[in-house]
Specification:
Length: 313
């Protein structure tokens, strides 16, 4: 119990409430649409925004159940793996990453840092990686790593929703109105599910999928919300810009311009696609004038190093 108190205290010291700011934005046809940004990219310099929200209660769970650490899954540029390695280093628990791909990627920016921070890495081929949600594979892993809590890819465990709820409560305290929409990018669905579960029926949780025609995402979110009859959420599937980690010229241009105009850094894999989508949907008249939209800047800026490494951005 003592240990838990220490961890809680350390967490409260290291991670504070992120700011919420209004974007100077006036659309020619819809001058009263308001865009607000929840700056979760500023939560912590090393532990990326929504990955922290999702991990927090899994870390408590790890300590209360006397696990040694957390094992999870990710690609070789994964923001989740990066955040987990940093969290393990900062809060002193072991971390193990099951990484999709070959060990030749072990020295890229994301993974070499993870190793430096003490994370153990196991590289598995695509076939094995595909089994990451199968019950028998997970049981085998748990036998192999009995002292590790196993967190799914992207950290989207049901406990992730608790941390995301805390973010929503922060937002509701920071604004003096009821938002019409709270928006976030969607990869594995935990963030959107957490938002959907915590808002009243006056607000819609709108997710922008960063994956190409992955309509399975809708049932993933539904499962995470635990079917508690929530219908106030929606996923927009038309802004993947070519697919996961693909960057169109238009998107790149949008992100650069946005950064220049607002001095808010974006990366094009998640947050760039969301901001781009919302601007484009406003242009298309999808929101009526006067709509108040809160956009969650989910962080992910470490991913830029990997994109630059590969000459993609
Ligand atoms: C992982 C990630 C997301 C996607 O969140 P999910 O909960 O997996 O849907 C969004 N933005 C950033 C920056 C991320 O790293």
């Amino acid at each position: 119990m003592q240990k838990i108190k220490q961890i809680q205290q350390l967490i409260n010291e290291k991670i504070q409430i992120s700011p919420l700011t209004k974007l100077p934005f006036k659309h020619a046809h819809y001058p009263n649409i308001e865009l607000w940004i929840k700056r979760d990219d500023l939560l912590h310099p090393l532990i990326s925004g929504n990955k922290w929200r999702k991990l927090k209660h899994q870390i408590y769970h790890t300590f209360t159940n006397d696990y040694e650490g957390i094992l999870s899954f990710g690609g070789c540029y994964s923001n989740h793996i990066h955040a987990l390695a940093n969290a393990g280093h900062l809060f002193e628990f072991a971390t193990h990453g099951i990484i999709r791909g070959e060990s030749q990627n072990a020295n890229n920016a994301t993974l070499s840092l993870a190793k430096e921070l003490g994370m153990k890495l196991t590289f598995v081929n695509r076939q094995e990686y595909k089994q990451r949600e199968q019950q028998n594979y997970l049981l085998e892993l748990q036998e192999q790593f009995p002292r590790h809590f196993i967190s799914p890819e992207g950290g989207s465990h049901p406990l992730a929703l608790v941390g995301v709820s805390e973010m929503v409560n922060e937002i509701l305290k920071q604004v003096s109105f009821t938002p019409d929409y709270i928006c976030c990018p969607v990869g594995s669905g935990g963030t959107l599910a957490g938002i959907a579960r915590s808002i009243s029926e006056k607000t819609i949780a709108l997710g922008i999928s960063v994956l190409k025609s992955n309509h399975q995402l809708n049932s993933q979110v539904e499962t995470l919300i635990d079917n508690d009859q929530k219908v106030n959420w929606n996923i927009e599937h038309n802004y993947h810009c070519g697919g996961y980690a693909k960057v169109s010229t238009e998107l790149k241009h949008f992100c650069h311009l946005f950064e220049k105009n607002h001095h808010i850094p974006l990366e094009p894999i998640y947050t760039g696609k969301m901001f781009y989508a919302i601007h484009s949907m406003i242009d298309q008249g999808k929101f009526k004038d006067g709509t108040k939209i809160v956009l969650v800047h989910t962080g992910g800026l470490q991913g830029l190093a990997g994109l630059k490494e590969r000459g993609l951005y």
